[in-house]
Amino acid sequence: MAQRKEHPRTPILIVGGGPVGSLLALSLSHFHQASTLVEASTTTTRWPKMEQINGRTMEVLRILGLADKLRSVDGVPKADAPWTVLHHTGLGDPVPEFARVDPHLSLKEEKKLDQQHNDGTRTSEHHQRCVLDIFESFLKTEVLRNENVTSHYGMKYLSHIENENGVSTICIDKEGNEHEFTSNYLVGCDGAGSRVRRNTGIKLKGGPINIGAYLVHFRSEELLELEKKTYGRFWHLNTHGIGCLVDQDESGTFTIHNFGPHVLQEDVTKYDPEELIYRILGGAFGKPFKIKIDEILVHSAYRPNFAVVKSFISEKGRVVLAGDSAHRQPPHGALGFNSGAHEQLDLAWKLSALVQGYGGLHLLDAYALERKYIVLQNLIHATELARTFTDYTVQYLTTGPQILDPANAERQRLADLVRGISIERAADGVEFDRRLTHSRAIVRDIDGSQSPLWDVDKYQPSSAPGSRVPHLWLKTKIGETSTIDLISHGLTLVCFEPFYQSTSEQAKAVFLSVAAKRNIPLHVVVLKDESRVRSVWEDRDLVLVRPDAYSLWRSQNQSQQPITSEDYIQEIFDVALGVKEAEKRKTIPTEPTEEDLMVEFAEKMKVVGAEDTEGGMGEVKFVAGFQVEVE
Ligand SMILES: Cc1cc2nc3c(=O)[nH]c(=O)nc-3n(C[C@H](O)[C@H](O)[C@H](O)COP(=O)(O)OP(=O)(O)OC[C@H]3O[C@@H](n4cnc5c(N)ncnc54)[C@H](O)[C@@H]3O)c2cc1C
């Protein structure tokens, strides 16, 4: 007879061992915090639902000591792998290409630039091609060997009851036995169909975009040969109007995405995966292009969505969401996992601070506020990319088969146009300059210094509270030790010596003594004569940094800040660690509020023809196995 097993209390129960849940368990461990992870499946995903990790996200892996390890895994494209996006009218077209764009440089080329430009405008890590099935199994290996993580694979979450002190969660294993876990916090990393979210009563706002998609993941040695010999190594091959081909590993594994409004009109159950590959390779106006296919790995229809939760946390504050359980992003700009990776790092340090007793009750409110704002900015950017590309596609399809004529003037115009459009990556401001614009868990400057206004297209390095502190290589360790590597598992006080203010030495001592009294892990880093770092970090004596590399507070050079007063330092820790909230920020027209962004998001969804639903998207048909709750 089926039995219910009670497990010892765990501080943090994570539901879902996809990329975000696995990374969360590893980040908690990095912050010296134990956790328990339950994952419904006994195997890792076979779906190629990620292909690029952006430079900022690679920095998250660097913080966790995983970036180099990932690059050494079989199947992860190596340092010379190109990011070339080849635009083509179809492989049957004798004209070799339509346009060619490189949204990024190869890692090898980036590393050369690292040596030349140590000026705060770059990241310590760079974009990495990596398909999700490889990434997920890499993370699972790390989870299994981590002593701070108790993992249960083949354990499905069913329900939970939350009260002020914690959560009681019921799961079921593959043999049908029930398991009860009690925890201080429950984190739903259970993906787009999140049952944790639905059981918590958290609604999603957003809906599916007016296009359908069908992917086929396959192996073909012949296509690999053709790529190398005829077209040159590429990452994406876009055959406009109907979809694209992705080279996943430079070793013969490819994915085609049949993508567009036409997919919604067709009977996808009748698709033959091989025929679909030929059709995408042949292009919208060419004949199907046949190649030898060695193996079809997986194939399915899916429906891109734009959506965000009303709140990242439950009303009682014990259930939290991260990753796709909290938002759905279309592929445009690759902001899905690349959002979740930062959420989990932020959540991990906050949960660790709470469980370890030095974090206050407002920390999770800060998490919810900070993350929702960033997700809304990401979604708005993704809708903009979708609109631009859809407009272009309409023009391309309207041109008709004459696009195949190399002398056609419209062909030339569209080729020029597409060189300026990138849906493969997000703009620099979106990828690199994520800010905690309205956070109430940072201590803002009082000397009137102005941070540069956020710009979607630019990364503007700054150490202002709420900005991610800039990466620079230390002067004797170019290409080796980054300022990001100095950040510890607790708070980090970066001291630039020699100090301008005579009181800074005293302030350093007070910080340490207050932190010791409150059991706050505070690490002091002294940077002597690092004038370049100091200048990019906007010339302060002291900068206090969060474990996820965001600036919390910095000393002001020209003001009457009482930096040696114990009360003042207590106040900084109170705000930074969620014991009390900073004043709500005055709204200024150039910095929209969350409400403004919600309005803009709703408007943008109309423009791209997305359905704007309230209250969950269970009614949406045409979803893939990886978009719904696991059975
Ligand atoms: C075609 C495609 C391409 C993409 N490309 C990119 C890209 O290049 N870059 C990028 O950043 N993002 C990309 N994304 C988005 C990316 O796939 C997701 O954002 C990412 O997988 C989200 O990770 P997650 O861990 O939150 O959720 P998931 O990957 O969905 O993982 C959720 C996990 O929870 C488990 N689970 C579910 N229910 C339960 C339950 N009841 N009990 C226990 N476990 C449960 C599931 O088995 C699964 O392992 C792409 C998406 C698609 C569809």
TrEMBL record:
InterPro entries noted in UniProt: FAD-bd (IPR002938), FAD/NAD-bd_sf (IPR036188), RIFMO-like (IPR050641)
Domain FAD-binding positions: 9-377
Pfam families cross-referenced by the UniProt entry: FAD_binding_3, Rng_hyd_C
Keywords: FAD, Flavoprotein, Oxidoreductase
GO molecular function, one term: FAD binding
Keyword ATP-binding: no
Gene3D superfamilies the record matches: 3.40.30.120, D-Amino Acid Oxidase, subunit A, domain 2, FAD/NAD(P)-binding domain
Keyword Flavoprotein assigned: yes
Official protein name in the record: FAD/NAD(P)-binding domain-containing protein
